[in-house]
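Two proteins were folded this term; both appear here.
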Amino acid sequence: MINKHRFPDPLNATYVSPRYRMLLNYFRYFDKEEGTITCKKGLKIDGASFGRAFSIIFGDQHDYDIPATPHDQLYEDNLVSGKYLTRKQCDKVFYRAMIDAGFPRIRSLLFYAGVRLGGWWPWCRNRRRDSKKRKERAK
């Protein structure tokens, strides 16, 4: 059962493509270790991006939108309360969000392992993008 104290806002999103949805309003997650993660209106989310082969086992990737949304926000902008989080910290937030969203611990652990194995690519892509933006602003 979802913990309404940790996820106080409804998740309102619309499809912008078969894979992506876009947040129509702000969405917050209160993480017990990192604090409040505010997901911005307009954020594109893809749920749990585990591929079609695993959908037979785990269902639709958008079944995981609630815990995946704060993780997607952290991968976009890893800043929480003025502090930059490491990728590992962001992935641990996802693990805790899975549990707070009511998923079993074993599935939460499997998904955590999945983001630890496969999350490096989007993380590095977004950090390169951030670096380019900082360099352009400095000119």
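Next, the second protein.
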Amino acid sequence: MPRPAQEHYPTIGEDALLSDLLALIATSLGVDLTFISRVDGCTLHLDYVHDQGGLGLPAGSAMPLSDTYCGTLLARDAPALAIADTQADPEFARLPSTRDLGVRSYSGAPIVSADGTTVGTLSTLHRQPRTIPASEIALLTLAARIVAQAFAADAERDAARRLKQERERFLSAILHDLKTPLTSVRGYTQMAQRQAARLVPANADLPRYIGHIDQGTTRLLGLIDELTDATRARLGQELTLHRLPTDVVALARGVVAQHAGLTAHRVNVVAAPPALDATVDAARLERVLDNLLANALKYSPARGDVEVCVTREGDAAVIAVQDHGLGIPTADLPHVFASCRRGSNVGRIEGTGMGLAGARHIVEAHGGALTVESAEGVGSTFTVRLPLGAPKDAELEDL
């Protein structure tokens, strides 16, 4: 017996080709209804339906496989099934389609994938008993082969290609982002080792080198967390936030301090209030600001200015990161927060296109918004708006 598909076989949405094929078969044979079904375990799903006789079986209907003529077709492992009068055979007279819908005749052929798995059927229903000629069975068999090929060509191959491309981009992005901090950790570790070997009795630079190691390691852990969040987002899972009252001014200054020793750019922090508490996931918000600041530095001219401005607007904390660098082309702005998308003007400047997508995901999980204003050749301003308090249903970490 052909194996019923255990997973949902990919369909082609509202593909006009398959709808037109069903309409053509129904018109040619003069039957009330034609349909393409998909087998999922013990359930039959009607994915495409042409109901010119008003039987009332809509696309999207699902029913136990054992309660259908298709179930008999698959159980018999037959190349086709023709029932001239359903009421003449007790096996078919008991079925809901015969008993409740008044179906009196059925014809169908299995849809078989290239690996021999039966994934569904192409079938007809009619309210009158009728003689089903061999030419009709041949037509249905040929049409079922066409449907199987359409499924394979338009769904499986395209899905596999998209998945492969996405996986390659994803892995490439991971390797790139992980390589940079690891290289930094290795370099500073080697310097620390050389200095430690010459300690007589101590070296004042050693704590600074070890500090760089710590920063690189922290950055690596942040990237791993970013990858974890991105994977959850791809799976449609919500972030679990660890919210605590946090001084976002101090947090912003801390992020700037981490970059200060690694760049020749001038980074200025402008804070209207000296302190501003918001109930946020501090680690994730730090990752957002780190990404925004790293991008601002990356796309700014050498020794250019970058401003980080923290203000309060009503019940919201607003953090803006402004640079005076490349800017984003107008055509690219609608896609700036899409995963693995980068501006068309970045040239050979390295990057993955993952950070902004993850940053927006984090900000929106807080009930906030991340927006951008940019002009090519002028610069960009990315603005984070976060509610100062946590939602009533949010769970706070124990203090």
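Confidence is low (pLDDT under 50) at residues 1-14. The chain has nine helices and 13 strands. These notes refer to the second protein only.
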